[in-house]
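Researcher: Quick test of sequence recovery. C-alpha cells follow.
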C-alpha cells in the first residue's frame, strides 16, 4: 500500500474517534433549553468528521486515482529529501512557536509574526507586502473574534496590557 493510503488510514482512525465523540459524547451535557435548538455546539464537529471520513475513504479506496488512464505519482518515501522536507519541518517548528507565543506575545504580534515568517519560509520575498497582508489578516480576525463574536482575545503582550 502506498504512503498516501497509509496516512489516510491513520487519519481515518482519528476521524472515526473524533466522529464518535462528536455524535455520542458532546451533547450529553447540554442544558434542556439548548436541546431544542436546530444548531448545537456539536453541529460543526459532526459535519467536519463526516466530511473527513469521506475524504479519507476516497484516498484509502483509491477513488481519487481516476479510471486508470492517468497514473498519479505516488510519494516515494525513499526519496523524502527531494520533497522540500526542510521547509515542512521549519513550518512545523513555526506552528509550535506560534502556539507557545500566543499567550505571552498576544494574538496580534504572534499572528503577524507567524504569517510573515511562514510566507518567508515558503519563498515570498516582498517583505512590505507580506507585512501589510499579515497585519490586515491578523487585525481582521482579531476584530471579528473580539468585537463581533464577543470572545476576549488578548491583542497585545502581557506587559503592554498592564499585567
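Model:
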Amino acid at each position: 500500500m502506498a504512503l498516501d493510503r497509509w496516512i489516510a488510514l491513520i487519519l481515518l482512525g482519528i476521524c472515526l474517534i473524533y466522529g464518535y465523540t462528536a455524535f455520542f459524547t458532546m451533547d450529553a451535557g447540554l442544558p434542556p433549553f439548548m436541546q431544542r435548538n436546530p444548531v448545537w455546539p456539536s453541529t460543526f464537529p459532526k459535519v467536519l468528521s463526516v466530511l473527513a471520513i469521506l475524504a479519507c475513504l476516497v484516498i484509502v479506496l483509491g477513488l481519487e486515482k481516476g479510471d486508470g488512464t492517468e497514473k498519479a505519482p505516488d510519494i516515494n518515501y525513499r526519496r523524502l529529501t527531494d520533497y522540500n522536507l526542510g521547509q515542512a519541518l521549519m513550518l512545523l517548528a513555526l506552528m509550535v512557536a506560534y502556539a507557545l507565543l500566543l499567550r505571552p506575545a498576544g494574538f496580534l504580534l504572534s499572528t503577524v509574526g507567524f504569517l510573515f515568517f511562514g510566507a518567508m519560509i515558503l519563498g515570498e520575498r516582498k517583505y512590505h507586502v507580506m507585512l501589510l497582508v499579515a497585519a490586515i489578516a491578523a487585525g481582521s480576525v482579531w476584530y471579528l473574534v473580539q468585537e463581533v463574536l464577543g470572545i476576549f482575545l488578548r491583542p497585545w503582550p502581557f506587559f503592554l496590557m498592564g499585567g
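Residues 3-66 form one domain.
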